[in-house]
Design a protein that fits this description.
By secondary structure, this protein is of the alpha+beta class. The protein has two domains: 36-89 and 338-503, 3-Layer(aba) Sandwich (Beta-lactamase); 96-334, D-tyrosyl-trna(Tyr) Deacylase, Chain: A (3-Layer(bba) Sandwich). It has helices at 3-39, 77-89, 144-155, 279-293, 338-348, 351-366, 371-384, 408-419, 424-430, 491-503, and strands at 48-55, 61-65, 96-100, 104-105, 110-112, 115-118, 160-161, 165-173, 203-209, 218-222, 229-237, 247-250, 256-264, 270-275, 297-298, 302-307, 329-334, 392-393, 405-406, 453-460, 463-471, 477-485. The chain has a five-stranded antiparallel sheet with strand order 2-1-22-21-20, with helices on both faces. Strands 16-8-6-3-17 form a five-stranded mixed sheet. 47% of the residues are buried.
Length: 511
Amino acid sequence: MPALILATILLLVGSAPRTLAEDAKSIESAIAQRIEELLEAPAAKRTHWGILVRDLETGATVFERNAEKLFVPASNAKLFSTAMALRRLGPDYRFATAVAAKGTVDGDGVLQGDLRLIGGGDPNLSSRVLPYRKPDDFAPDRLAPLRDLAQQLKDIGIRRIAGDLVGDDSRYVWQPYPRGWGHADTLQVYGSPTSALAFNDNLIEVLVRPGTANAAARLDISPALAYYEFSNRIATVRSRYVDRSLSARWGNAPGEVVLTGQIPVDSRGRKFRFAAADPARYAALAFKAALAGLGIEVAGGVSARHSLPEQMKSLRSITPSQSRDEAPRFAETASVGVAEAIRVVNKDSQNLHAEMLIREVALQESGVGSREAAVAGLRRFLAEAGLRTGEFVLHDGSGLSRHNLVAPVATVRLLEYMWHSEDREAFLDSLPVAGHDGTLDWRFQRGGARGRIRAKTGSMSHVLALSGYAQGADGATYAFSIFANNFGMASASTRMLVDSIATALVLPGPG
């Protein structure tokens, strides 16, 4: 081969990597410049920003701003809890809900004793349509999974329960609310207490519709269960404009919820979404209704069975007792796997489910489904994932706690860890897709990011977050974390800035 040709080939081969590296640097520089320009806008100046963007292939930092500072993450905390559940429990791990009793069934089909509905930690004991399709996608019959259990009892000849019906959530320690949750949150479904037995997302929906002018509004409750006593003080008014907007609060009597305000006579209605204060008792009440629908009578009352903290030898780690509850199980239903369960958590930002998942991990690892064991387990997992002490402080799995603090660098370390794990696809599939589904279904409809970002949202008062993965126009994949805290302007304006920063990652490079 002539020396000139050989020299030319070597030159071309040797120059190719440098050209690719130069192109990557040019693209990264363009991304950084776009983000800097966005942060220089007057609207961004009064916000505390934490941002980190890394190239997943090269590990290069594309942009950072306060990456090691701590921020309130809101629902970005679910990235940590769902990653732990997926890695610790495995994508195919399932939960079982059972019906058991220690009494005997006589020849007439009468159970002489109490019947227990035993929670197994299934977050989707509901009529939710799975695999996941969209938020609030439930079959019309909300009692469907409980009717299935009731049918199993009927099939073995049970016709009457002489004792009580007990909702048993003793699988997890009864510690309903993590540290840092507000009292006002506890009535709303997003602030649902944590329980190993949660039916219908522990959700009670109340549709407020206008009555006749100057009369009380009408209330439609779904499921139609007498759990709360609703004190209806909502007035129907002729005007389109009201002096008092609709609101809800706890009443003075146990189980009382007070609804106040005004609703226009031509209103289409407004929906409230409340959480049952005792999910196990609520599930038992729903199960009683399912049994009644199949002609099975419950002679006794409805109650709940909890594992109270003071009853536990330790809230951090215990050796499981060799003597287990051997009550005969008459019926059982299994859940979907964890890979599908975390899709609901991340796409819909489901707080209750996130809390249940970290309790289950704690139970499997430490023998006790307590808040303390769950938080300790989360710390251990994140350390194994490469996060460093001081980069995160987490007190729950959902992000509702105001005591949570996370640095962007911690979030990106987790995203990198999951990207390189064998559970990458399941984790990616759990995240909302920009402009398509979950909490991002209405965002990124314009600007080129639609379908090219998979990320977890987060929001609460003066807090916005978005962290996940972005596919660049030139083929690179980025892990990113964007936190906006302490902003004084409208959330919508800050959200537009957050989305613009994320969109900067997917735009074509220069030239």
